[in-house]
Amino acid sequence: MTETGAPGNQGKPGGGTGVDWAALEAAAVAAMANAYAPYSNFAVGAAALTTDGRIVSGCNVENASYGLTLCAECALVGNLHMTGGGQLRAFYCVDAGGTVLMPCGRCRQLLYEFRAPDMEVMTTQGIRTMDQVLPDAFGPQHLEETR
Questions:
Q1: Can you give the pTM of this predicted structure?
Q2: Which active-site residues does the annotation give?
Q3: Residue 14: is it exposed, middle or buried by C-beta count within 10 angstroms (0-12/13-18/19+)?
């Protein structure tokens, strides 16, 4: 799937931003292949493009104590920091079948923390901005306002 062929890309944000959505999809699928999901059998892979052009990825890692499971987005953010930090410009997440997944609310908040101002997310409805998938989000700027 190319940038112009991405689902819902026509007339949507990202149509001309130079994001290689096919490369992000491939990286997410590759990450998903490394998932550790023996309890749910629901493997997830995520990939993101950073503002400096790197692709970072992550997969879910389950735990017998279910609440300690790490989402693919958590692993991705860890990878972001282990490879130089920065901000996320575009994000793509898939299940074991390669189907696009939306991050849960917790993970949307995590992604918001590390987003570039114009971050885009591949959603089940096409490409959306981070502000569209998490409107009126709470972030670091709010902590600065209260100090």
A1: 0.86
A2: 73
A3: buried
